[in-house]
Amino acid sequence: MSQQVLLSKSLPELVSWVQEQGQPAYRGKQLHQWIYSKGIHSLDSVTVFPKQWRDKMSDYPVGRSIVHHRQIASDKTRKYLLQLKDGSIIETVGIPSSKRLTVCVSTQIGCPMACDFCATGKGGFERNLQAYEIVDQVLTVAEDFGQRVSNVVFMGMGEPLINLEQVVDSVISLNQNVGIGQRNLTISTVGLPKKIAELAQYQLQVTLAVSIHASNQAIREQLVPSAKHYPFNELLSDCRNYVKTTGRRISFEYILLAGVNDSTAHAQELAQKIKGFQCHVNVIPYNPVQEASYRRPSPDSVKSFSDALEKMGIAVTVRYSRGLDADAACGQLRASRLPGT
Ligand code: SAH
User: Looking at the structure, do residues 132 and 204 belong to the same domain, yes or no?
Assistant: First the structure.
C-alpha cells in the first residue's frame, strides 16, 4: 500500500505533483477538477492535458476501485462490492432519499470488534483502509447515481477509531476536495478507551455517533466484547467531554434486540444515565444476520421503548434500516475476496 495515488490529494499537493512532472502549475487545478468533479479513473481521460504526457502517465494510479458487483434493493438502496488494488473486496452502500444521497462507507476490510449481532465481525479483520480508499467509495456512488453526494456516514465495515488518522484524512478530503460539509459527515464508533478524546482534539464539525446498545455494563459486555475494557461510566464521561470540547451533540445508536435490551425498564435506565446530556438516541431495530440468533422486537415494543425514552426528555428517532433485501442494511455488510486473489 506504499504506492502513491492521486486520489485524496489536496489542490496544493496536486499542483506540486504536476510541477514535479515538469508541467505548469495550472494543470494541478485542472487535475483537481477532473479527479473530484469529473471522477476520472485514469489520467488518460484528462483530455485537456497534452496527448504525449497523457500517454506517458496513463498507468499512474488515480486510486479508483472497480465496481465488482452492484445490488439494488426494493427501496432503491444500492449495495456495491468494490474491488481494491490488492484484490480485496469491500462493501459500500448508497442510500437515496428525496433530498439527499447518503453514502455509507467502510473504514476497514472486515472488523476486529466482533460484536455479537453484526455480520462484519464474523468474518474477521484484514486491514485498515487508506484515506483515498474511503474517498473513492463516495465518488463511486456519486458516479453510479449520477448525483452529488450530500451526506456520508462512516457506518460500513470496520471500526473508524482504530483507523483514526486515515479516517480524519478522508474527512478533510471529502470536505475540502469533494465539497461535502463536515456537518453532513457522521463517524460512528463502538467506543474505544482514549480514542473519543483523541478524535475531539481534531476539532472537526462532524457528528459523532456512539454505538451504545445497552443501558448498563453487564448487557453491553454481552453484546460488544470490547466493552470489557471500557466501563460504561467511563464511556459516558468521555462522551460528555467530547460534547464539551467540540460543542457538538452526540448521537447514541441503540440496536434493539427482543428480550435482551428492549424493555421499558432498559429505556428508563438509559435515560437516567444520559439525562442532561446534549444527545440524541437512534433506536435501530435489529436486522437479521445469518450467524446470530437475535430477534427484532415487535413494532409495539419498539414504540414502547422509544416512548419511554421520550417521556424522560430524551430526543429519539427510530431508524428502520434501508436496503434490507439486498443485505445492505446496518450490520449486514461483510468482507470477501475474489477467487484466486
Ligand atoms: N464500528 C462502528 C461502525 C459500524 S456502524 C460502530 O460500531 O459504530 C454499524 C452500525 O450498525 C452500528 O451502530 C451497529 O451497531 C449497527 N448494527 C450492527 N449490526 C446490526 C444489525 N444486525 N442490525 C441492526 N443494526 C446493526
Answer: yes
For the CA of 118, the nearest atom of ligand 1: 19
**258-307 residue pLDDT tens:** 999 999 999 999 999 999 889 999 999 999 888 878 999 999 999 999 99
- Shared-domain flag, residues 39 and 21: yes
Output the DSSP codes for 93-126.
Answer: EEEE-SS-EEEE--SEEE-SS--TT-HHHHT-EE
- Which residues are 127's β-sheet partners? 109
Q: Cα of 66 to ligand 1 centre, how many Å?
A: 26
119 lies in the same domain as 47 = no
pTM, two decimal places: 0.95
**How far is 97 from 77, CA to CA, in rounded Å?**
9
* Structure confidence by residue, pLDDT tens digits, 223-257: 999 999 999 999 999 999 999 999 999 999 999 99
* 149/191 same-domain check: yes
Range of the domain at 31: 2-57
Spot the catalytic one: 91, 133, 159, 253: 91
Beta strand spans in the chain (E): 66-72, 78-83, 88-96, 101-104, 108-110, 125-128, 151-154, 185-189, 207-211, 250-256, 279-285, 316-318, 336-337
